[in-house]
Every structure is written in structure tokens, then in C-alpha cells.
Amino acid sequence: MNTWHNTSITEAASLLASDVEQGLSANEAKNRLARYGPNKLRKGKRFSALIIFVSQFKSLVIWVLIGAAAVSAALGETVDGIAIIAIVILNAVIGFFQEYRAEKAAAALARLAAPHCRVVRDGHSAVVAASEIVPGDILLLEGGDLIAADARLIQVSVLRINEAPLTGESQAVGKFTDSLPSETPLAERNNMVFLGTSVTAGTGRALVVNTGMETELGHIAKLLDTAESGETPLQRQLNRVARLLLWACLGIIVMIFSLGLLRGIAPFELFMSAVSLAVAAIPEGLPAVVTVALSLGVQRMVQRHALVRRLASVETLGRAQVICTDKTGTLTMGEMTARKLITSENLYRVTGEGYATEGAFFSGTEESLPSKSPELLALLRSSAACNDAELTLIDDRPGIVGDPTEGALLVAAAKGGIRRGAIETEMPRLAAVPFDSDRKRMTVIRRRENQLWAFVKGAPEVILHRCTLIRTGQGVRELTESDRSRLLQANTLMAHDALRVLAVAERSLAGFSFEEGGVINDNEIEQELILLGLVGLQDPPRNEAKEAVVKCKRADIKTVMITGDHPDTARAIAHELGMLGKGEEVLAGAEIDRLDNEALKARVAQVSVYARVTAEHKLRIVSAWKARDAVVAMTGDGVNDAPAIKESSIGIAMGITGTEVTKEAADIIITDDNFASIVAAVEEGRGIYDNIAKTLAYLLSGNTGELIVMLSAVLLGWPLPLLPLHLLWINLVTDGLPALALATDPIDPGVLNRPPRRSQEALFNREFLTLTLFTGLLTAGVTLGVFAYELYIDNSLEQARDAAFTTLVIAELLRAFGARSEQRTIWQIGLFSNMRLFLIVAVSFALQLAIHHVPMLQTLFQIEPVSQNQYAAWIGAGFIPLIVLELRKVIRRPHKEGLK
């Protein structure tokens, strides 16, 4: 691959057999189009709708449920089988629509290409479709153009390019034609222009060197095509649950059937009970519970400015251990802002953010009004007078047309009450000498009160060299060496704070004669200037970002800045946000290139800021964190962020400034471009995981209790305590609706005050299994006790089964209230703080009562009428598991607090 930035213009033209003046002939362009192909980005690998839909059934838990539905239908429980299949199909449909949209990312890249552009063909300017551009074409560039291909510049005039979508560089980049060293990073190849970027100012001619997939944007498209996000932690956990349930069901059937035969139980009755118990052991409501929990979380996240594209990604975000974030537009405003002004007498701090014109000027703690500070007023007026930008509204938001730096100067002037329109009326513009990289200054000549004035801005060291006077609050005086030293020191200090510094000056051109549109001698008029002051500009951090970073630290989440900006700029912003702790490093892209994947993996934990990085660097950083088994979130807005966003555990795009490519590759879109909204989404994700975990614990504890009841009866030689219909009813009433209500529980307010769960942390950890087994044994013990009492004291098998059936249902329904927290008791949480659960338990309780009072249901469930005292005793027994579990929380709390 040619390093075109390291190639001279003559050599590049020779390699491409092109004439920089005449361009290509029409015939040659046609031949090259056939050889190189259209200047289009290839769409990424696509899947048909059918394949995407079929892929929704690859989860093992889905096939376990389908098997359970088939068995239910075989047992005559058609309604139960249909309900399970309906749940499976609903989840497949939701997953289908989420994944179908996610596959649009690579296609969106193609829409960045310019539809038409100007080229030189046969020695004449011609407008052609961007898709017909070929290597060797000569592009003609001017302000507002989208760049149609990667090209080597051969002629420029004050050309500035916005490369933020490609490199993340927040400022427009000045271009030149000189050759550069081969190792020059992408963000500093200032003799090149790239597909997907745009011209903010100036004009130029460029030799096309790469088109289509061979461009830098094409390289990103290839990275995006190969990036894989893999399974989410939640999906891995559910697959483990499915495997466990599958083996458990097979074991149950074999064990109960074998023991029952040895005990002489009728084979058909035994088979029905064993299979019914196996079906009951499968929490078929689990996918519905997960879907409901995630969907409700999605609704809450929309209210907190986070739009979710993949449901499973919500829970993944809750596990996030690392958030890799772009700087420009995410941690910062993405809009250049004047932050400090230095005049002959004062340093002024400027408030307000971005391109909004609300703000004030402070000298120390006192607000300064420009109308009462003549030297400040003069500095602001000249900043607006020597300017080519325009303030405007873009999508109802304050914006600028032109160079972002000049836009920031206009905004600062507007905060002081000086408007560009008034400048043009009071001081008509006659001529300008534009800024370029050699002169490092710009001059505009205007007529003010029948006298010509020159307004100049540029690099401080250049402007100071040309100044002999300085404006003060009392008038103009000589610029002393002490003044020069103080201002140069101020320039150095602001530069160390990553501020871009401009000096502003003016001069009366009394005695000069000049006609509008005439030629001016810049060396002659840019002398003996009156220095007005220095302006320090920066893309400022968002106010909310610093607080969000603090929250991340409290939640044990590492925040990492990844930007295309200069290391000094990145370091200054990171310090201001509190992201750089003791011993944490700043790493540049050139240093990343010197590290292999293993070395980078070993080093990422110590690095909090990456600067001057490319799309490939970002991808490697995310991959290094994933290689350390970290759940890593990647945020960004530019095209260069898209591959890393897709590769990350959870991809997050900015909704306002984000490109369509980035949004399509992401799992979550932040609608207000605010880093604080990402932290709010993490909070929601953690709460959702808690709800899913406690619901699963509730489901499996209940199923464990049922299994222990049946296994114990077989081992003890007792009649089976529960009939197949009893098991299916328990599964419906106690597992389904209460579990769905648990999934809607409010989020614990202290959820961000604990570390995130590790990606490999098993849901079935020791504490989970202990609680599940303890709860199952407790529930089963109470149920078997009631069954034995009725069987051996009252000598009635039907009544004993009724007692076991009723006690187990009541115990499970009441236990749902206690399942809401492992630490807090019902009274601490509030009995009515989840009204859905309260109403569902009440309705389920009423249905259980109806079985004992409706003759048809009595016959169906094979139960006999009982006295009120008996029923009250069974209900009392059903309270025992809940009471014991609540007392366990009270006893264990001091021990847990002592471990903290």
C-alpha cells in the first residue's frame, strides 16, 4: 500500500499516470472505472430475514421450553402447551426486529459518500457522480463540499477540513501540500483529504489516490464488518440455566419412575406424575419474565435519555466494568468556546458553553461588563470584525457556519453585546488577507467612521512580534518588553491547559488609500499594530460529565477517554473531569502501534487516556479489555468509533452528533449526547439484572420445593402428595404471574454504590444455590408435615393431598413478597410498594379459594369440602416459610454489615 502522504506531488501523479493540470480523459476515466470498480463502500455481510428469525431459536432454553410444550400437549394440557409456545414465539419476534435493524450498520457507511463532485476531465471542470470517481482524477474543492475519495493535495488556498467523523479531531484542520514522513499518524496527514470529511473553508485541488473500499473510510467499513459483539452475559447465564434444567428434568423422570416401580406404584400413574413434575420443574415463564423486565427497563431508560436497540444489552450495561468514551461531543460540548480573555490589565473568565450566546465575563469573582471595560470591548469587537463565520440555528440549536474557532470568537463577542450584523453595518468590509499555515494570521480591512482600519488575529508569537502599541482602559500606550514577557507567559500557561490561543490586534490605516476589491500589501499594513489581547479557546467539558465520572468511580467502573485529539488537550480535559488518577497513564496512538496485542492487554488497566488514535486503535483497545474478561462499553459519535462500538460488550452512540453509521452499530443511543445519561443507563441495567436474578431465585426455589415433596414421598413409601393437575396448577398460579410482577420491582436506590458483577460471575453462585435449596427444603418440609398429619391423623388421602396442595400454593404466593430482597424485610421495602405483585397475589389467593367452593373445580382437582378451621390451619402453615426467611434476613444483616 502506497504511503501517499510521504509521496511528492510529481511522484504521485507519475504513479497514477495522471496530469495534475489536465486531469484524466473521459475514455481513461471510463477504463479505470471498469478496472477499480465504482467509488462505493461495499455493504457488510447481510442476512436474510428468514435466517435472522430462525437464529432466534438457537438458545437451548428455547428448545427445553418447546420440549415442555410438547409433553404438556401429550398429557392433555393443551392450554399450558399453547401458552409456552406463545411465549417462545413472542420472544423470537422481539429478537428478530432488534437484530434486523442492527445489521444496517455497514450499509449506512455508504450514505456518507458525496453524491456529486467537481473534477478536471480533459482539461475542463466537470460535475460527475461521486460513484464514478477513479484513482488519478483531480478533485476541485471549495467550502461546504463533501470529500468524495481519499486524495493527495496538490494545491491549496486557506483550505480547512472538518475531519471529526473520521479522526475525532475537534478542530478543523489546516491543509498544505508538502510531503510528510511515512510514520505520520492519520490525524496529522495534513497533505491529504479523506472520504467522508468536509471542507469548512478555502479551496484546493487534490489527486485522487484511493476510492471505495481502499479509502480510510473503507478500511473502517472492513473493521465494522469483522467486529463481533458475541453473547451477552445474560444470554450466557440463561443458556447455563437451560442446560441445568434439561439434565435435571431427565434425572427427575428416571429417578421417580425407578423408585416408584420399586415401591409398587402403578406404572401409568407413576409416568404421569414423573413427567408432570419434570414439566413443572421448568420455569416456562422465565423468557417472559426476562422480556418484561428488560422492556420496562427500556421504557424507564427512554425517560432518562437512553434509547435501547437490543433488549439484552440493557442488562449487559448494568455489568459494565469499563466505559471507553470519545472526548469530543461526549465528555465535552463538541463546540469550541472562548474560556479565557487576557487584556493589558485583566484576565477574564468567560461563562457559558458551546455556541449559545448566554454568558458573562468575570475578573476574579467580580462580573465585568464589556460596556464598562473599554479594553475588553475592543478585544471582542475586533474578534468579530476579523471573522468569516456566521452564527445560525441548526435543528433549532445554536450553531455556526464556518470555522469553529471563528464561531467561538463570534459567540464571545455576542455575550458582550456585539453582533456580527451590527459590525457589518457600522464597519463595512472592504478586503481580507486570509489565514494560512505560513503566515499564521488573518487580516480584515473595514471602513470605520470614514477611516480605514485593519483587524488582525493569529498566533500570539507572530502577532506580538508585529505590535508596537497596546490598548488599555485609559487609551493606547507603548507595548513594553515587560508587557511582551507577561503576555507570552500567559500564552504558555494557557497552552499547558490545552487552550488554543489567538492574539487579536488592530491598526488605523490613516494615510492609506484602498479601493474595495483591490490588492493589499499585507507586510505593509500588518505592522505597528495595537495589541488588544489574547483569547484562550477550548472545547469545554460538559458540566454533568464530572459528576458522572465521580459516580462511575463510586460504582467501581473505570472511565477511559479515547480521542483523536492531541495528548496535551486530552490530558487537560481528563484532569478537569477527574479521570486521571495516581499512576494512570496517557497513551498516544503511535505508542499503541509499538505494542502487540498481549502487551496492550497487560497495559490497558493502567491507561485512562488515549490520544491521536485511529479507528483500528479503538478496536484494539476494546478487544484488549474484552481479553481481560471485562464487560466494556464503548461510546462515540464519529464513523471512526463504529467498529469499536460494534466490537464492545455494549455499544453506545450519541443521538444528536452521532453519525448514522455509529447509531446503527450501537446497542444504545443517548438522545441528549450526555455522558451522565450513560451512567443513568448503567443504573437501570443493574436494577434490571437484580429483578431478573431475584425472579429466577423465586421460580427455582418454588420448583425445588415441589421436587423435594415428590421425591421424599417416593423415598418414604407414601402416596404421591400432588396429582399431575395439582403440579400444573401450582406452576401456573405461583410461577407465572407473581414472577412477572417481581420483574417490575422498583430499582434499589443504592444500586450504584456497589461494584459491578464480573462478566464470568455465575448466577448460580454458592449464595444463590444455598438460598434456593434452603427455601425449597423449608417449603417442602412444611408441605410434607401438613400432608403427613392429614394422612395419618385423619386417615384421608384426598384431604391430605388437598392440604399439601393448598399449603404449597399459599406458601409460594406469600413468599413472593419476601423474594423482593435478600437483605431488606417486607416492612423495610413496603408491602404496597409493588402494587402489581400485591394485586396478583390477591387474585391468585381468590382463585385458590374458588377451587374449594365451586363444585366443578372440586371434582376436577379431586378435593373434598373442608371446614374453615382446617383451611385456616393450612393457610397458617403457608405463612411459616415466609416468617422463617424474613427472620433469616434480620439475623444475617449484622454479619453482612460487619463484612463491609
UniProtKB/TrEMBL annotation:
It holds the Pfam family Cation_ATPase. PROSITE patterns: ATPASE_E1_E2. The keyword Cell membrane applies. Residues 3-77 form the Cation-transporting P-type ATPase N-terminal domain. One of its GO terms (molecular function) is ATP binding. It is a multi-pass membrane protein. It is found in: Cell membrane. This is Calcium-transporting ATPase. It comes from Candidatus Methylobacter favarea.
